[in-house]
Amino acid sequence: NAPASESEALLASRQAHFAKPQKNYYRRPPQIERGFREEMYDVDGRTYLDMVNNVTILGHGHPRLAEAVGRQWSLLNTNSRFHYAGVAEFSKRLADLAPEGLDTVFLVNSGSEANDLALRLAWAHSGARNMLCLLEAYHGWTVASDAVSTSIADNPQALTTRPSWVHAITSPNTFRGPFRGPDSAAGYIAAAEKALAAIDAKEEGLAGFICESVYGNSGGIPLPKGYLKEVYRMVRERGGVTIADEVQVGYGRLGHYFWGFDEQGVTPDIITIAKGMGNGHPLGAVITSRAIADSLEKEGYFFSSAGGSPVSCVVGQTVLDIMRDERLQDNARDIGDHLRSRLEALGQRFAIVGAVHGMGLYLGLEFVRDRQTLEPATIETARICDRLLDLGVIMQPTGDYLNVLKIKPPLCLSRAGADYFADMLARVLEEGY
Ligand code: PMP
């Protein structure tokens, strides 16, 4: 075991040499050494329940994945300009998972890259530049994906520094937005229509629209009923391309749906995925139609050195095999439903609970100071997360006010794990914060 002073020295070294904008989760973080399933262990052997890891969907340290990756590393790893089985087989498998017509795949290394490429595809396909996106959004760190990221929690200057081609519309936050409840789509659709009319007036055309199809960054809030159907229609009417960012919410996490857009009953023109599909290995993808994919050739060829490498394809295939064999989407639905009911019960007992958002194992617990005014309980939420760490639970806030617990554990979460989380949360709320 590393003595506490050694761990502190390591943290000081991180602060000295790892660039400052790369934030740590905690002010006094445990030094994590290994993980298994939904648990992580620090250098002192303390166990933490990982309720926040939306990347490691299979759980930590999965032996079947480690074995498959190790075998492929010793066989071959190179770039996708070579002809090998993995890239053909994995691309077909992703196309098979997508709705009909979305049969063409680009393999990249992250969600930021996937969204960047999706935006470039929309530009190339439409011949226009203007892009519609939502307020409160996060889509990545690359220049283009950052441009459509409007979350003030991630970037306090976000709203005053977006380039002129970015047109952010009212966040369809049915809990605290200007229109509330699942049947509030009309108000948000009108806001989108107004923004589209302003773009029309510029006579420059519309490239498209990007959004998460269940609103993950605002805490896992489903979009109002019928919202995407109508906004997609208005965007397509103008020659724009619709992009569903499924990086966080898609790929089985919602339990009840494999894709977030299934919840809205729509099919986008482009799907972007990453995070869970690689279980922590850098892997992302864009799935679209042949026509949209081919339009990129106007700008030359596309090549990513490690995107779709033999190792990445084995990771992608093995993740899907394990998800199927261990029925992880079903587990996300069943354990998610159970956890949701436990969180709703906390809402009966504690006034600070404003709402339980989400479904499957993408849940959001929103804390408010007052159920009438919905004043966000931001400081309280930070304290609750700190106290949960003392009790062995990793949890972090999200949303523009950082007052929503983002509950997105590995999809293998057990019922006992879900109950431990709910019990510890009850204890913290009983203690006060
Ligand atoms: N889109 C969404 C919705 C995300 O949550 C994230 C990451 N938080 C990204 C894109 C960017 O993905 P990555 O970190 O893999 O670049």
UniProtKB/TrEMBL annotation:
<protein>
    <submittedName>
        <fullName>Aminotransferase</fullName>
    </submittedName>
</protein>
<comment type="similarity">
    <text>Belongs to the class-III pyridoxal-phosphate-dependent aminotransferase family.</text>
</comment>
